[in-house]
Write a structure and sequence with these properties.
Elements (H helix, E strand, L loop, with lengths): L7 E7 L3 H12 L6 E7 L6 H13 L4 E5 L6 H10 L5 E4 L5 E2 L3 H9 L4 E10 L3 E5 L7 H6 L11 E3 H6 L11 H12 L3 E12 L8 H14 L1 H4 L4 H22 L2 H13 L5 H11 L6 H11 L1 H13 L1 H15 L8
Parallel strand pairs: 1-2, 1-4, 2-3, 6-9
Antiparallel strand pairs: 4-8, 5-9, 6-7, 6-8
Helix pairs in contact: 1-2, 10-11, 12-13
């Protein structure tokens, strides 16, 4: 059993996330490892409705280990993470997005495993809109190149457990990134340190709503910065890897364009994808509904995706349900958002 000799700082950047913030914080306070501090960084800006709601949640939880820091105005996730670390004192640093939550052994098992390493990742259960479940198993050979090609290689930005020393050496998150900040940071971290991997689900990534959706133009702008910053890594990729990367990017573009209501550009991107013969069934149906005038939001798209992935999804749920504690933990926490009427039996 790891003694409570190390202080662990958990940074929660929050922006329009009060619906799930209490769940995120209590998942930390309920951790078996007790020597922690929780830094809630309010990126809503002072004197906003969301900032008042955030303070009310912290007051309700009433745990002396929680420290509240509020930006004067909205900045971005990278700035919020750096603000949190700059207001922390822990030997180790980890993060938790306001809509994610951690299992009770997350911190303890991470400390027991990290030993002489400076960077650690665990497996993650991805739950989308209460209907779509999948396990993200982190590759044992996780490398900068692998992270470059696989946006979801570690499941969520909450899956960073790092020493303060390495974080400082990296000079924190790059604040010019309004997107990809986790991915950019992790690639740089992997260039400096070989990580430890725990093949145990210790984090739940829970997507309940489509908020803070980037514009297509903004997404392209950040992608160009990302490509420029890691040009040396892209040069090492094979032609097949480059094609796979571009294909994944186009699918993400299509999703953003559908969700933002940009019909003309969505059809243009869909035609590019069709030339590669890789337009997915749920994307095709979403486009058909889109063309008929239906408004497609994140929940609707996830339901469409779930319908086509039902067989795979049932298999994933069966795998998850074999771990009775994990299944009951997810079930009870998701019911807080959706109520007990959600079907968890299939």
């Amino acid at each position: 059993m790891m003694e409570d000799r190390y202080l662990v700082s958990v940074i929660i950047p929050t922006y329009k996330g009060t619906d799930n913030l209490e769940r995120a914080i209590t998942s930390i306070t309920n951790n078996e490892y007790r020597n922690i501090e929780i830094i809630v960084v309010d990126d809503n800006g002072k004197n906003t409705t969301e900032s008042y709601a955030t303070k009310d949640i912290i007051k309700k939880i009433n745990d002396p280990r929680i420290k509240y820091v509020c930006h004067e105005k909205n900045k971005n996730g990278a700035v919020a993470r750096n603000t949190g670390v700059n207001n922390s004192k822990g030997d180790y640093i980890t993060f938790l997005d306001d809509d994610d939550y951690m299992l009770p052994k997350r911190i303890l098992n991470s400390l027991n495993m990290i030993e002489k390493a400076e960077l650690l990742f665990c497996d993650v259960c991805d739950v989308r809109y209460g209907v779509d479940y999948r396990i993200c198993r982190v590759n044992d050979n996780l490398s900068p190149e692998y992270m470059l090609l696989n946006e979801m290689a570690i499941g969520t930005g909450s899956n960073i457990f790092i020493t303060r020393r390495l974080y400082k050496e990296l000079d924190g998150f790059n604040e010019t990134y309004t997107r990809f900040q986790d991915r950019e940071f992790i690639i740089r971290a992997l260039q400096k340190s070989k990580p430890k991997i725990i093949h145990e689900v210790l984090l739940i990534k829970s997507k309940n709503k489509q908020n803070n959706q980037p514009s297509f133009a903004k997404r392209l702008e950040i992608e160009n910065i990302f490509h420029s910053d890691f040009d040396n890594l892209f040069e090492k990729l094979t032609k097949e890897q480059i094609c796979g990367y571009r294909n994944a990017v186009e699918h993400k573009h299509l999703e953003i364009l559908i969700l933002s209501g940009n019909k003309d550009k969505a059809y243009e991107v869909a035609n590019i994808i069709k030339y590669d013969d890789s337009l997915k069934a749920y994307e095709f149906l979403s486009l058909c509904l889109f063309k008929l005038g239906f408004k497609i939001n994140g929940s609707v798209m996830s339901m469409i995706r779930y319908s086509f992935a039902r067989i795979r999804n049932i298999k994933e749920k069966r795998r998850i349900k074999k771990d009775r504690f994990l299944w009951e933990f997810i079930k009870s926490n998701e019911e807080k958002n959706y109520g007990s009427s959600r079907n968890y039996t299939s």
